[in-house]
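thought: fold this chain, then report.
action: predict
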Amino acid sequence: MPVVDVDPDELRHLTGHEEKDDDELRSDLFDLGLEFEGLTEDEEFQLEFAPDRLDRLSVEGVARSLRYHYGDDRGVYVPSTNSAEWTIEVEDQPAGRPYVTGAVVRGLDMGEDALESLIQVQEKLHATMGRKRAKGAIGVHDLTMLKGAAATEGTGKSITYTSVDPDEATFVPLDADQEMTPNEVIADHETGQTYGDLVADFDRVPAIYDSIGLFSFPPVINGRRTEVSENSRDLFIEMTGTDQWTIDHMLNIVCYALEARGGTVERVAVEYGADAPGEYAGHTLERPDFDTRTKTVTHARIESILGVSLEEREVIDYAERAGLDAQETRDDGELAYEVEIPPYRVDVLHPLDLIDDIGRALGFNSLEPTYPDVSTVGGRHDRSRLEDAARDALVGLGFEDLLNFHMTNEEENFERMGLAPEGAAENASGDNREQHVAPDDDCLGAADPVTIQEPYSEDYTILRTWALPSLMMVLENNTHRRYPQDLAEIGLAAHVDDDVNTGAAERHTVAGVLARTDASYEDAKARLQALADSFDAELSTPPTSHPSFIAGRAAEVVLDGEAAGVIGELHPKVLVEHDLELPVAAFEFRLDALE
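observation:
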């Protein structure tokens, strides 16, 4: 989940509640669904939140939510905007990145805190909605350093979004002191080496010009001439991408954050040429687009989902406290509400999202559990009982219990583990390249993954086929913590299976890792044997090979005569890939093998 760093003093200032101490703030933030993860070196809160609420990627967004929570603000707020003075004229832009948007924000008092917050929301939006800049990239410029040409139409100023030959155009990029071409930036500049792949296949790369020359090479890097500092007061924000909706909503989030700092938002006209690729050819758009939208939810649905009885005025009150506006209406003769949604909310896709907001304003902790109005009372599933028993046994054996995301990406699930799906051996590590990577039934984790058709983030594109990569990611993030680290997880794994009516076979899996200076196959085997004994299961471990494990130090996990998983010492290449400097022994097997 996204983690944002928030200065509690800045939060108190922006909410107007200087009287709140840190404990009260943490409690209030938890009520909003933001979990406190710890403190930074600068004593800032590290807050983890659901990735759908991208409007909370900045301290300004978090403060806005708190003001609604405290009742200081109510209903939908839409900032006023001044008429457009600047125009982005779009011509000959790359077909692979055809869309652009922009805004001007004037009268800011940046300061160190405001600048750090702007940088953070820019980076977080790049990582989430922008999909590491592939879908949308943000450029923020000091407006006073831009010299606009005369607009083609009207009396305003203009800049141009176009494409250039990557070996001919030159500019001085950020963190450089000499002119470079785009290809030189990609080859020699640290930022260019990181993001250059996004335009590597373009014959002509994206570029933004003013009357002086090139000042932005999106999505890679801005020019040094327009660099924003604490002394900047007026900003020009431009965003380019592969989807107009995405960059427009990224722009809304940034504009709301800057408006909360006292800035005045000014519209920018985006003029697409008649021959421009994409659906907006020949159109002029005025951005930012602060139009609100509405969704309808019935009163009965709200009461059914939340399990409480509410008066009409209470529903409207809770909606307003959630930053929404609601009006009574009728849906097929049934009492309902037409709910207005602010332009910075990109997460509201369904009436259930509105009910969630109303429930949070009501306070989920205030809801009292009640038995459903049915003739039977539910009980725990046998698999759930087995899972809890296995978890208790693992904790008793010294493991720390984890709960990781079931979604991941192919790099984490396969490549970083020296593994490839469907038996491909070419990506195996070290001396394991000589081994045969067996098909999915024989090689744990190598099954064909369930792929998300339209992933929201590049970090979560598939359902994991096994759990060990998740544990390795935790070890990678815990290198600053004390060893030994003995971690275990019981969770979901899945793979494509045409024989299943859903097309995806799901299973619960048990995984454990021992990270310590003396970790060995024997240590892992001893823990696994104790676990099997606690369930009266007969364990045998015949030798096997697996690309993630050292050849000769891996075995198959066979429980009651049925092959269920793998155990062994992880390959050094896998350890190096995860920045680990000590051995790791690990095992993983199907949970149902303990039945």
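thought: worth noting. Confidence is low (pLDDT under 50) at residues 423-441.
final: tokens above.
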